[in-house]
């Protein structure tokens, strides 16, 4: 007996209680049980299942006897035969068709017609300022719901869709919990302005900045990249995510739409069914791969070969230490979620509580999050007025270590764990941390224990809206949103930490406390008009939006601590313990505040005729306080058109259940540049008691604009079992925002300007879903998405713009990604490596030339979902090809010369550089450029719906086991080709595809239990 | 219910809309900075002075251009270290180009200081004295710009938004001289203290320097490396300006040479004419600490623990008579504590207890004179310490950073006399200096001898490239640059980006 029955039974019982008809329900249930299990007397029923649409026989339709595990399928002609008890009810089901339940009664022949539902086509898709259905959508929108989401340890909402949506590429900065992610929707459009999409949560566009300031590099352990600002949301609260990819969809967000828009919709309570969900997950994670550095004995052998004196205690310290084992761990993550939702005709509500404690694989690192969420709607006055409130409040605690990539030659935890001499002990004889005596020497364990970096963010996002249904067709909505976040970053380096003498005055300790407050206020008014006039349907929206973004911060930094090292004293709690006497200036402080306003008017009309011809037009007018006085308002139009060929008589319905041709054109903008760039501003030089003009203002500054067009085709075959989408897109970005050279002499070398350039992104996206097996017992569906992308700097009328900053000793000022006309953004320009000369010195080609792009030409993801009775399984494999990655770790840390300096390297370092002299400087060349192709089993999940006894108070119980990052197939010699050092930039021009001592990625296993009551 | 609809709904809507629809004027509020009205000229003048710190004390940019191409400094690659894409080697081997980091950084630093001075000069609120000091600062920056780049981008302050015009080297030199002559009467007299502000003597020094180089600066740009003809009038002007400084009576040679660079040089030195006045504990934050001068050369295992970078050349080191006090000295409070000596560091290095230091692989730390610029080991190369680190605050010590020094006044005067045919008077001046420095006197004085003497007195102070150009030896081969370099290398190229944005500038001949 399958669990559907229990679920039905349980529900019946509860509803029975509610309707005070327990007895009746119980009797019915007992009758059924008795009829099935005691008086079962089977007879044979046969018949044919046909399609209502064309009358053809339908093969593969599932037929089951309700309340039993008996079932069969129709044959090629739609015929079936099944043995069923006399009083049985047969259930006929087929994907995309309405389910039918028919009591057999006395019949022995039962012919059934199924009606195509095309449910998928009626699925609601959230778009900006409204919703549409799949069949009515004219723009490029990918919408994903819980069943499509990634499973396991998910730190932030966008990770739910990593790899799952065509045209959306995500590259994590590192494997650190909560680290930032590079998200690029249909390519990279901007040189200097932001390239991340706009996030909109339940209609409220978010300010993308982080409240946890990345630590600055002044204490010498490397800048810490800002955390992912979306960490504040509990991924379990998310119902669906829509990605607006093309201009016709994104133009409604005007000056912020150029990089695409991600619309996040949170879970709501459903009328008539209350549900209490409890889910618990526990994960263990360990590094997928570590560097296999030389063992102690191998190190000594190789050191001797390199001409080092292995009898010297600076080469042979006499111990045997596996430094990587000492800094990495098996990390445990715990995740608890509790939610309760329900409602009736007038009121819906949803509450949730989440607790997540994710450890990182570097000891001491973690991200902890507590979230609470409330969603409620209430209808008043005969449903004339709908009030809605939604609120998320969260606290995120980050604990970091010195793992940032913006690091000097002394190194961070990761690089020191790789390269520290394995013969050195952790501690000296007196119990203090071992050091060689060289002042720049850093002990990896001391770095972990003596450098601390914590962040704490509290954020509340709330919105209240009122909708007034003025007439049947016309409604008005007012929406008020408030997004308030406060972040504190606390960083400390203990006094006497080895390797910091050159960074911290007197090496007497360092503490920094930075606070940041970000408030976004949103006010929106929209009018919606929806009507049907004969064969015409009109759905129009017009609105006004005002957003105010306020960002303020302050910090206090202290040095010259008078406490003793090793006292276990938290410096950030005790910044008073400093020597501020005489000329020692122990304290540095600062404060900042900026504000900008965005005022917008927008409208959209969707017109459809005869369900065949669809037209969408949008216009947004955005005005920003940041724009120069001469360019206060920008206009962003778009049009989209679609033709539903499948509703034309000349398209054979038996082949195409759906066929739609779409085309779109539009202009979107990017306005990420600082406030006050159009005004002359003066800044203080606090230490000098002076003030000076700091910028070269530009009164013409405005948004960057992207003009895009595309065509797409949506199709459904095999009665909707096979559906797919093909899209071609072409984006051209002009008026690039860039701090461009200011004519000298002037107080600044650059000024923000819109430079004449054209960044071109063209590509093709495919996605295909195939319901391979649709039986009640065994189900299998597969989906694949593929993106082919070409990025080119089609025009750049200025000298090359340098970026791609390599890090490491001897690599200052080495930039390998000059942005050059005619080549992709961040294209690698390198000398060819031509081997070694007789002295073992590297031979390079005379000139640098283009060697490849960090952008893969093809990115794909393949999902397979299986169900078998109570079991379900899902495997997600993704990959990319055609791109390159530069191994900065090998250039700077794992090189032959490093061994000569007494540092550890890997066997591969030595075998790959056979013939190189130990003193030869490792210079940037094609030697370190590798293909970033990979195939990864990213997600594999197996779940089981536990059969519950009939008296169970739970509705369902699901147990799942999920593995993430299970297998990586790649020729890359580093740890993982899908990573990018965010610090590899120059003048804040971002970079991509440079791997430098990144926080390693983990392989994770999660055991989850979820129960519904 | 219907009635409620009529009352409640409109009220509700009114409440929701109240105060929310009003249009914003989209003012760009300046909240954490100020505008011009909040920034009086005296604060801006201070900022212009302070720009000298980041502009000149870094080991890169202007300083790197003034030293690495000369015969007294080089930056060797040491295994994996200090290759930096050939940045330092390209300077020493005269193979820089118009996109080299230091070329670009020097251009930007000099122009920024120039612009900060312009802000004071062009501000109607500034007093005549403030304008005079700002013009001194602008002349200072223009001197370096015209010396290094052969032309100066110059704004018409009556129309500051217009594209700057390009002053040729000759025009820029004339502008410097005219400005300095104009402002000199408005400046204070030197007092011997407060050497961080523009004084009549500082202006006289810069005038002397400009006249001394006038032959170079007015040379036909098609043959920028000379030979030069030094006009008698220019040399007389050098002598007159030097005499003005000498006769002020505020300056004299400091008996202990390294006191000029000591962390107490504010009081110990009598030679300081124009400096960045540093105070212990504060200076590093202004970017004017001389700490880079020791970090850029000392080994990791020395104190201060440096970056093991730049060295001098063997020939340069060997040009010293070993009795010369300028070749090295032990400094009480430093050498006896941490072992670090002043001057040239050669051979085995020791800590404060006299224990021999080792390199990072445990071998004795012995600085050698021989050096392979492409593939040096940790210990190769003679190091140079001029600024004495204050061990109690290595990063923010009180050493004033020296631009104009009295010894240079004497050497400029001697050179002018020599170039105008009065070798005997020149020899006297040089011998007086040599005596003060504890070395034997010369019997004759040739140009080559004077250049060598300038090297021995002024080494690593940022004058060597300028001196070698003027004496015509800049292009000649030196160690680790085997061939003579083309004449056009005596000036640096205008950065490519600047040419694109300002068509008034034309690239220097040869680039």
Notable traits:
heterodimer; A: 1013 residues; mainly beta; 22-stranded antiparallel beta barrel; five-stranded mixed sheet; globular; disordered N terminus; B: 511 residues; mainly alpha; three-stranded antiparallel sheet; 20 helices; 40% helix; 6% strand
Percentage of helical residues of chain B?
A: 40-55%
Largest interface: A-B, 101 and 93 residues
Shape of chain B: globular
Principal-axis shape of chain A equals globular
Please work out how many helical segments of chain B DSSP would assign: 20
Strand content of chain A: over 45%
Gyration radius from CA atoms of chain B, angstroms:
27 Å
Model regions low in confidence, pLDDT < 50 over at least 5 residues of chain A: 1-40
Summarize this structure briefly.
Chain A is mainly beta. In chain B, the strands form four sheets. A three-stranded antiparallel beta sheet of chain B has the order 4-5-8, with no helix packed on it. The chains are: A mainly beta (1013), B mainly alpha (511).
Overview of the structural elements:
The complex is a heterodimer of chains A (1013) and B (511). By secondary structure, chain A is mainly beta. In chain A, the strands form 10 sheets. Chain A has a 22-stranded antiparallel beta barrel. Chain A has a 5-stranded mixed beta sheet with strand order 10-15-16-13-14. A 4-stranded antiparallel beta sheet of chain A has the order 3-2-5-6, with no helix packed on it. Chain A is globular. Chain B contains 20 helices and 9 strands. Chain B has a 3-stranded antiparallel beta sheet with strand order 4-5-8, with no helix packed on it. In chain B, strands 1-2 form a two-stranded antiparallel ribbon. At the A-B interface, strand 23, strand 25, strand 26, strand 30 and strand 31 of A face helix 1, helix 2, helix 6 and helix 20 of B.
């Amino acid at each position: 007996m399958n669990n559907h029955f229990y679920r039905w039974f349980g529900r019946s019982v509860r509803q029975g209680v509610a309707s005070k008809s327990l007895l009746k329900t119980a009797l019915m249930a007992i009758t059924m049980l008795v009829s099935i299990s005691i008086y079962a007397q089977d007879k044979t029923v046969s018949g044919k299942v046909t399609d209502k649409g064309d009358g053809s026989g339908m093969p593969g339709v599932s037929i089951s006897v309700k309340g039993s595990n008996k079932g069969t399928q129709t044959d090629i002609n739609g015929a079936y035969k099944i043995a069923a008890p006399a009083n049985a009810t047969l259930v006929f089901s087929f994907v995309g068709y309405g389910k039918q339940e028919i009591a057999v009664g006395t019949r022995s022949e039962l012919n059934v017609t199924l009606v195509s539902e095309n449910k998928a086509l009626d699925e609601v898709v959230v778009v900006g300022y409204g919703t549409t259905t799949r069949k009515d959508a004219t723009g490029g929108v990918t919408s994903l719901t819980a069943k499509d989401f990634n499973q396991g340890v998910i730190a932030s909402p966008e990770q739910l869709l990593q790899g799952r949506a065509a045209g959306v590429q995500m590259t994590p900065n590192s494997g650190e919990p909560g680290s930032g992610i590079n998200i690029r929707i249909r390519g990279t459009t901007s040189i200097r302005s932001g390239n991340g999409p706009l996030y909109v949560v339940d209609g409220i566009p978010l300010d993308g900045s982080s409240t946890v300031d990345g630590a600055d590099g002044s204490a010498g352990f490397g800048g810490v990249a800002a955390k992912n600002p979306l960490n504040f949301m509990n991924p379990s609260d998310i119902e669906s995510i829509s990605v607006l990819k093309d201009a016709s969809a994104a133009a409604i967000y005007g000056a912020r739409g150029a990089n695409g828009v991600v619309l996040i919709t949170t879970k709501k309570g459903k009328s008539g069914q209350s549900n209490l969900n409890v889910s618990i997950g526990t994960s263990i994670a360990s590094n997928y791969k570590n560097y296999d550095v030389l063992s102690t004995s191998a190190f000594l052998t190789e050191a001797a070969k390199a001409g080092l004196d292995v009898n010297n205690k600076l080469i042979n310290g006499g111990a045997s230490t596996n430094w990587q084992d000492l800094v990495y761990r098996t990390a445990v993550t715990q995740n608890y979620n509790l939610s309760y939702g329900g409602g009736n005709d007038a009121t819906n509500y949803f509450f949730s509580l989440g607790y997540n404690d994710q450890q990182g694989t570097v000891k001491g690192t973690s991200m902890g999050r507590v979230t609470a969420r409330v969603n409620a709607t209430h209808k008043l006055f005969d449903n004339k007025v709908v009030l809605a409130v939604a609120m998320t409040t969260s606290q995120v605690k980050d604990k970091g270590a010195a793992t940032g990539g913006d690091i000097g030659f002394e190194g961070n935890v990761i690089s020191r764990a790789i390269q520290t001499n394995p013969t050195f002990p952790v501690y000296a004889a007196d119990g203090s941390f071992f050091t060689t005596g060289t002042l720049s020497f850093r002990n990896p364990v001391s770095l972990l224990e003596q450098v601390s970096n914590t962040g704490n963010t509290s954020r509340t996002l709330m919105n209240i809206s009122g909708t007034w249904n003025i007439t049947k067709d016309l409604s008005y909505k007012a929406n008020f949103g408030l997004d308030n976040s406060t972040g504190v970053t606390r960083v400390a380096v203990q006094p006497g930490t080895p390797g910091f003498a050159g960074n911290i005055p007197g090496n007497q300790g360092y503490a920094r406390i930075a606070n940041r407050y970000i408030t976004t206020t949103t006010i929106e008014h929209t009018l919606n008009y929806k009507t049907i006039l004969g064969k015409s349907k009109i759905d129009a929206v017009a609105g006004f939006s005002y957003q105010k973004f306020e960002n303020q911060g302050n910090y206090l930094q202290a040095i010259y601590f008078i406490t003793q090292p090793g006292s276990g004293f938290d410096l950030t709690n005790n910044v008073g313990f400093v020597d501020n006497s005489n000329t020692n200036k122990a304290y540095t402080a600062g404060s900042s505040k900026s504000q900008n306003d965005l005022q917008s008017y927008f409208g959209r009309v969707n017109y459809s005729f005869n369900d065949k011809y669809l037209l969408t037009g949008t216009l947004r007018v955005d005005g920003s306080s940041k724009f120069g006085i001469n360019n206060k308002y920008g206009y962003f139009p778009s049009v989209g058109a679609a033709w539903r060929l499948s509703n034309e008589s000349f398209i054979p319905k038996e082949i195409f259940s759906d066929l739609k041709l779409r085309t779109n054109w539009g202009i979107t903008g990017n306005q990420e540049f600082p406030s006050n760039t159009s005004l002359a501003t003066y800044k203080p030089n606090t230490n000098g008691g002076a003030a000076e003009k700091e910028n070269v203002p530009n009164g013409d500054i405005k948004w960057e604009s992207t003009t895009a067009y595309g065509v797409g085709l949506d199709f459904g075959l095999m009665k909707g079992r096979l559906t797919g989408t093909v899209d071609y897109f072409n984006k051209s970005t002009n008026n690039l925002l860039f701090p461009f050279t200011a004519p000298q002499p002037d107080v600044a070398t650059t000024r923000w300007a819109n430079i004449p350039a054209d960044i071109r992104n063209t590509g093709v996206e495919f996605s295909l879903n195939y319901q391979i097996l649709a039986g009640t017992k065994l189900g299998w569906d597969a989906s694949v998405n593929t993106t082919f992308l070409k990025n080119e700097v089609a025009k750049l009328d200025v000298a090359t713009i340098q970026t791609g900053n390599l890090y490491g000793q001897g690599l200052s000022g080495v930039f390998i990604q000059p942005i050059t006309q005619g080549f992709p953004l961040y294209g690698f320009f390198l000398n060819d490596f031509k081997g070694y000369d007789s002295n073992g010195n590297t031979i390079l080609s005379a000139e640098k030339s283009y060697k490849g792009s960090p952008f893969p030409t093809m990115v794909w993801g393949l999902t397979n979902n299986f169900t078998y009775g109570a079991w379900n399984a899902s495997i997600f494999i993704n990959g990319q090809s055609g791109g390159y990655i530069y191994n900065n770790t090998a250039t700077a840390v794992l090189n032959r010369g490093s061994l000569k300096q007494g540092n550890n390297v890997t066997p591969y370092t030595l075998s790959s550089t056979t013939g190189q002299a130990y003193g030869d400087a490792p210079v940037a060349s094609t030697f370190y450029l590798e293909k970033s192709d990979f195939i990864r089993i990213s997600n594999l999940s197996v779940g089981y719906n536990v059969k519950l006894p009939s008296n169970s108070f739970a509705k369902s119980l699901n147990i799942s086991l999920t593995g993430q990052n299970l297998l990586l197939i790649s020729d890359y010699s580093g740890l993982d080709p899908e990573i990018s050092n965010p610090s590899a930039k120059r003048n804040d021009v971002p970079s991509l595809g440079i791997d430098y001592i990144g926080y390693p990625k983990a392989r994770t296993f999660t055991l989850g239990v979820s129960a519904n009551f | 219910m219907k009635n409620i609809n009529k009352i409640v709904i409109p009220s509700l809507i009114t409440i929701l809309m109240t105060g929310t629809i009003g249009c914003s004027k989209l003012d760009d509020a300046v909240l954490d900075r100020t505008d011009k009205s909040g920034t009086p000229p005296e604060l801006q003048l201070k900022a212009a002075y302070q720009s000298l710190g980041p502009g000149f004390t870094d080991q890169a940019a202007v300083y790197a251009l003034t030293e690495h191409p000369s015969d007294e400094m080089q930056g060797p690659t040491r295994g994996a270290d200090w290759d930096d894409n050939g940045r330092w080697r390209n300077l020493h081997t005269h193979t820089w180009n118009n996109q080299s980091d230091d070329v670009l950084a020097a251009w930007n630093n000099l122009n920024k200081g120039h612009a900060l001075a312009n802000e004071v000069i062009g501000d109607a609120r500034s007093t005549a004295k403030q304008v005079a000091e700002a013009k001194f600062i602008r002349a200072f920056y223009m001197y370096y710009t015209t010396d290094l780049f052969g032309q100066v981008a110059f704004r018409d302050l009556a129309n500051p938004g217009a594209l700057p015009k390009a002053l040729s080297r000759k025009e820029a030199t004339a502008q410097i001289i005219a400005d300095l002559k104009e402002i000199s009467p408005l400046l204070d007299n030197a007092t011997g203290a407060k050497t961080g502000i523009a004084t009549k003597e500082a202006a006289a020094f810069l005038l002397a320097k400009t006249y001394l180089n006038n032959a170079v600066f007015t040379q036909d740009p098609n043959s920028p490396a000379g030979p030069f003809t030094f006009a008698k009038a220019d040399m007389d002007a050098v002598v007159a300006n030097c005499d003005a400084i000498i006769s002020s009576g505020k300056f004299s040679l400091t008996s202990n040479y390294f006191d000029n660079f000591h962390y107490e040089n504010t009081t110990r030195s009598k030679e300081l004419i124009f400096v960045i006045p540093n105070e212990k504990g504060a200076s590093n934050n202004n970017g004017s600490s001389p700490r880079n001068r020791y970090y850029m050369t000392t080994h990791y295992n020395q104190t201060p623990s440096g970056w093991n970078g730049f060295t001098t050349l063997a020939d340069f080191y060997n040009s010293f008579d070993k009795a010369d006090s300028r070749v090295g000295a032990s400094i009480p409070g430093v050498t006896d504590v941490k072992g670090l000596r002043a001057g040239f560091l050669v051979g085995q290095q020791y800590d404060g207890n006299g224990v021999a230091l080792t390199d990072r692989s445990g071998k004795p730390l012995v600085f050698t004179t021989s050096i392979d610029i492409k593939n040096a080991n940790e210990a190769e190369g003679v190091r140079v310490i001029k600024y004495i680190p204050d061990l109690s605050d290595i990063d923010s010590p009180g050493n004033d950073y020296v631009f104009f020094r009295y010894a240079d006044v004497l050497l400029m005067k001697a050179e002018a006399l020599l170039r105008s045919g009065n070798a005997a008077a020149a020899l006297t001046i040089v011998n007086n200096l040599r005596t003060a420095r504890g070395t034997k006197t010369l019997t004759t004085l040739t140009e080559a001898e004077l250049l060598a003497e300038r090297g021995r007195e002024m080494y690593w102070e940022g004058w060597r490239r300028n001196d070698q150009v003027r004496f015509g030896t800049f292009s000649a081969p030196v160690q680790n640059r085997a061939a003579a370099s083309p004449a056009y290398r005596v000036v640096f190229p205008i950065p490519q980006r600047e040419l694109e944005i300002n068509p008034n500038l034309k690239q220097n001949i040869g680039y």
